[in-house]
């Protein structure tokens, strides 16, 4: 009887271990946020949707997430990258500290003529907000200014849609190449499903941000599809021009 009990406990232990999600051993400060979107029509409200992060650029802090989220959660009247007639408020919070909130102010890159139906929405797949209020301890990220090197480690920090609680997860990749404004990555330690990571930051070993999670890209040289966050060079250029205006 005792042997049976010990054996059963061993099997349960092994099963539990095999079911645990693999994450990178790399540790970062608290970086990740998730979105909370309240619409004028509450039937479209999103209590927790995909990922986001804070960006510190030239002394100003911004909130950043993925633009293609608007393709997934738009109302019938939302035709372009324009929120004012549909979204009542947009905020962000760490999933493990839901009482801490970043309240977005203005969508800086809103554009009435940029249609959500266009595939080009993915080209510069970012939304950048000014911030009305921030009562979190989330660390705003700095931009990396040097070129990526083939084979160097990069990390995505956030949560998939299956995760309803817990600290940020860290996933590990190797830089392969850049195609346009897409950063093609080789997968090292990744979740079983990537859904829900859209908008999460892609950072290097030092925690400097180089991109944000978008979708996949086919390498024109090999015809192989790679996980490919969107680079942030165009976001940086936009902020430079926005501050000048």
Condensed summary:
With 245 residues, the chain is mostly beta strands. The protein has helices at residues 2-18, 69-73, 233-244; strands at 33-39, 46-57, 60-65, 80-81, 87-93, 102-107, 111-115, 127-134, 153-158, 169-179, 182-189, 201-203, 209-218, 225-231.
Walkthrough of the structure:
Mean pLDDT is 90; it is low at 1-19. The protein contains three helices and 14 strands. Strand 10 (169-179) and strand 11 form a beta hairpin. The radius of gyration is 19 Å and the shape is globular. It has helices spanning 2-18, 69-73, 233-244, and strands at residues 33-39, 46-57, 60-65, 80-81, 87-93, 102-107, 111-115, 127-134, 153-158, 169-179, 182-189, 201-203, 209-218, 225-231. With 245 residues, the protein is mostly beta strands. The protein has a six-stranded antiparallel β-barrel with strand order 1-2-3-8-6-5.
Uncertain runs:
1-19
| Topology, number of strands | 14
Order of helices and strands: HEEEHEEEEEEEEEEEH
Major β-sheet profile: 6 strands, antiparallel, barrel
């Amino acid at each position: 009887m005792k042997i049976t009990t010990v054996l059963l406990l061993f099997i349960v232990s092994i099963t539990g271990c095999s079911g645990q999600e693999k994450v990178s051993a790399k540790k970062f400060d608290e970086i990740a946020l998730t979105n909370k979107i309240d619409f004028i029509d509450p039937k479209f409200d999103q209590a927790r949707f995909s990922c986001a992060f804070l960006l510190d650029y030239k002394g100003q802090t911004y909130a950043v997430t993925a633009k293609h989220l608007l393709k997934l959660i738009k109302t019938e009247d939302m035709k372009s990258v324009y929120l004012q007639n549909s979204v009542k408020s947009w905020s962000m919070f760490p999933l493990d500290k839901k009482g801490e909130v970043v309240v977005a102010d203005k969508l800086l890159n809103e554009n009435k003529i940029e249609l959500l139906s266009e595939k080009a929405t993915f080209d510069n797949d970012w939304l950048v907000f000014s911030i009305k209020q921030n009562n979190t301890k989330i660390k705003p990220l700095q931009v990396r200014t040097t070129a990526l090197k083939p084979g160097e480690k990069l990390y995505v920090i956030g949560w998939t849609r299956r995760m309803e609680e817990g600290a940020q997860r860290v996933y590990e990749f190797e830089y392969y190449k850049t195609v346009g404004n897409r950063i093609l990555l080789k997968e090292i330690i990744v979740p079983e499903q990537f859904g829900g990571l859209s908008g999460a930051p892609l950072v290097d070993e030092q925690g400097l941000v180089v991109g944000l999670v978008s979708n996949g890209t086919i390498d024109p040289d090999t015809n192989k599809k790679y996980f490919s966050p969107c680079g942030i060079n165009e976001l940086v250029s936009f902020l430079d021009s926005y501050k000048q205006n």
